Every structure is written in C-alpha cells, then in structure tokens.
C-alpha cells in the first residue's frame, strides 16, 4: 500500500483535524474527482473523523468509495522493527441528488 506521492492524497498526521478537512476540500474544489485520506497508527481515528466531517458537514455529495486497511513494518533508531496499522479512505464526488441518502 505504500505508494509514491499521489497528488490527490492527504496524509493525516498530528495537526488539527480541520487542517486535513480543508486540504481535502481544496482538492475537490480544484477539480479532483477523488481524494485519498491516508493515516497510520494513532492517526487512523483522525482520518475517519476527517472523512465524516467532509461528508456530513461540508460536501454532502461526497461518498466513501473504498476503504483499505493494511500494516507495514517500521524500524526505529534502535534497529527494532514493529508493525503499524495503515488506513486509506477513498472519497469521491457522488451524484448531486443524494441529499436524502445516509
């Protein structure tokens, strides 16, 4: 799942949630048909929160197209390796008339 840089990806980290919400909204307003939210470890719940805020508050026509989960091995400075969970949430612009759908 570790892919090279993607122009339509938002990497969710330690900044405030609204930073990532606004970054994703900016990608949609600049013409992206899909935006991928990526997070790992403790930031997975923040990525889910970002996706839900976008869908429920800001862009009602955005739908969750796909969710991928995985894990990867990370080596720390001491040479130890550990597995860290990863999530990718693929958001896409849906039909304009899904106002009543939940």
| Continuous helix count | 2
**CATH topology (fold) name:** Translation Initiation Factor IF3
How many distinct beta strands? 4
Alpha carbon gap, first and last residue:
29 Å
CATH architecture: 2-Layer Sandwich
The CATH class designation is: Alpha Beta
Mean pLDDT: 89
Outline the biggest β-sheet: 4 strands, mixed
- The CATH superfamily is known as Alba-like domain
Contiguous uncertain segments of 5+ residues: 97-102
Topology order in helix (H) and strand (E) letters:
EHEHEE
Class from helix and strand fractions: alpha+beta
- Cα-atom radius of gyration: 15 Å
The main sheet orders its strands as: 1-2-4-3
> What is the approximate shape?
elongated
Range of helix content: 25-40%
Brief digest:
The protein is an alpha+beta fold and 102 residues long. Helix content is 27%, strand content 36%.
Structure in words:
It is built from 2 helices and 4 strands. The protein has 102 residues and is α+β, with helices and mostly antiparallel strands. It has a single domain (9-93), classed as Alba-like domain (Translation Initiation Factor IF3). Strands 1-2-4-3 form a 4-stranded mixed β-sheet, with helices on one face. Strand 3 (62-75) and strand 4 form a beta hairpin. Helix 1 (17-29) packs across helix 2 (44-58).
Topology:
Blueprint: E1 9-11, H1 17-29, E2 34-40, H2 44-58, E3 62-75, E4 81-93
Parallel strand pairs: 1-2
Antiparallel strand pairs: 2-4, 3-4
């Amino acid at each position: 799942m570790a892919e090279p840089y993607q122009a339509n990806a938002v990497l969710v980290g330690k900044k405030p949630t609204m930073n990532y919400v606004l970054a994703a909204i900016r990608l949609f307003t600049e013409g992206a048909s899909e935006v991928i939210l990526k997070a790992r470890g403790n930031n997975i719940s923040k990525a889910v929160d970002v996706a839900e805020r976008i869908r429920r508050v800001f862009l009602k026509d955005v739908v969750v197209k796909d969710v991928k989960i995985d894990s990867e091995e990370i080596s720390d400075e001491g040479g130890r390796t550990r597995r860290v969970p990863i999530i990718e949430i693929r958001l896409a612009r849906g039909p304009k008339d899904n106002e009543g759908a939940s």
